[in-house]
Specification:
CATH class of one domain: Alpha Beta
Structural class: alpha+beta
Strand content: 5-15%
CATH architecture of one domain: 2-Layer Sandwich
Radius of gyration: 44 Å
Number of strands: 3
Order of helices and strands: EHHEHE
Distance between the termini: 113 Å
Length: 167
């Protein structure tokens, strides 16, 4: 697919007053006067890029209706040549789908594959093994036997103070 860009070099259409063109572009782009002055600096400025033919024509007509002379330029497409890596057994061969994915073409990644629907993806756990502990030194006390608890603190007897008065 061919892509286009809208290029403006600061020129107005023949017969269009520059002040009126600047005013129209300020309204069209919703920009202040300082930004519009930058457009008329005489440098080549790309106003919009990555447009298909219909959208580029729509932009051209709209901007020229404001009085500015713009050019629709076909964008250069970069051809990316991929360095072929020798395929390794058990590894996936990555083929980039576009220029952005080309950076990932030299990735050496294992081919994990795809599991069937409903399959268990986790390796089975080994059965737990009981630890051998020697308990022969321990015994069980009979029911109701004292298990070595500390005796409770004796109850404190309160002195009789009924015969005292506060006068």
């Amino acid at each position: 697919m061919t892509l286009y860009e809208i290029v403006f070099s600061g020129e107005s259409l023949p017969g269009a007053p520059v002040d009126q063109v600047k005013s129209n572009l300020a309204r069209l782009f919703q920009a202040d006067a300082q930004r519009i002055e930058l457009l008329f600096s005489g440098r080549r400025l790309v106003l919009k890029s990555n447009l298909d033919a219909a959208a580029a024509e729509k932009y051209r007509v709209t901007i020229e209706r404001a009085g500015a002379l713009v050019a629709v330029v076909e964008m250069a497409v970069e051809e990316i040549e991929m360095a072929a890596l020798p395929p390794m057994p058990g590894h996936a061969q990555v083929v980039p789908r576009d220029a952005y994915m080309a950076a990932f073409s030299a990735v050496d990644a294992p081919d994990f594959g795809i599991a069937e629907v409903g399959s268990d993806l986790q390796d089975p756990k080994p059965e737990p093994v009981a630890v051998a502990v020697d308990l022969s030194a321990f015994s069980v006390a009979p029911v109701g036997a004292d298990m070595g608890q500390l005796p409770g603190a004796p109850a404190i007897a309160m002195p009789d103070i009924s015969h005292l008065s506060f006068s």
